[in-house]
């Protein structure tokens, strides 16, 4: 993605969803730009006219990589950001703001798991929930198929993943073989933006390297950036793929958490949510209550206990994260009140001492 060969808007992911948000005036006066890099004090945007740096004003709406911005052609000032089709965000540790935007307008989240020891349905489910909550389409890629003893093992694991969500694309591959990864090309073609998640060592960089068929993303090199806990200036968050699409590669994607994503969890476990509606009590905890449809389904073997346990775990986890968010908001509010009270008190004191001075002056 060099500035000498400009990408078209379509290559940058422009589509009717964004086009529809533009008015006639903006057509004439603005450049449509995608945020491709984000630094502490500047962002790098790219349009069909090439790329350039922008310094967003302090009171601008929060912006993240992947966003579409309207930038005035002459002043180069951000006019506004466009509504997002999808967005990943997370709880920001030790920060004043509650949630931190990670990346916007990703089309497919490629959940990578290896077929060996790392294979864990509950972990895959967690990522599915995060993807669904962000309005991103999840795809599961099971790596190291070449290291499996037999095909039966591979087929069996594919079926287990497909049982989580019959509509979800699930592939088994040798991440080092380009012929295996060709199955992924429909999802990384022109205009599409993809991102990868998965545990360390499952083969994310290997897949990307094989897709790029270059050494540009040396296996392990990304980890160096992660250790420092920040982006390096040379790190580009949106990379062009030879297949035509864009790869979103921002460290935050690897730390996706469940925060206030009840919707995503409920969507991922929709059959349990549907069962829960049939329980006798609307506030059923699905433990020991009579007339519990969930317990009935577990007892007759229709519902997998692993899946039910993971559902409960993820609901609790996101509720816990959301509660700590709410608590922090409450603390911030209380702190704000405290500051106000202190300021009022000091204003009163000042006023009182001024009054004394005034009295004093009048008196003498
Ligand atoms: N045989 C085989 N080896 C694989 C496959 N996928 C990954 N590997 C190997 O597994 C190791 C780890 O792969 P990486 O691509 O570095 O894993 P990663 O997910 O990027 O890991 P992090 O960078 O730590 O997040 C490398 O030595 C790869 O060559 C596969 O499908 N088959
Ligand atoms: Zn119940």
From TrEMBL:
Its EC number is 3.6.1.-. It is found in: Cytoplasm. Binds 1 zinc ion per subunit. It holds the Pfam family RsgA_GTPase. Signal peptide: none annotated. Its main location: cytoplasm. Belongs to the TRAFAC class YlqF/YawG GTPase family. RsgA subfamily. NCBIfam families: ribosome small subunit-dependent GTPase A. This is Small ribosomal subunit biogenesis GTPase RsgA.
